[in-house]
Amino acid sequence: MRVLRSHKWIVLIAFVVGAAVGAGIAAAVTTTTVVADTNVVRERIVQNATDGDFSSGWHIHPGPVIIQVQEGYLKVTQSTCHPNVIGPGETSIEAPGVPVLAEANKAAKFTATLLLPNSAPGTPDRVAATNPCE
Question: Is the pTM of this model over 0.90?
Answer without folding.
Answer: no
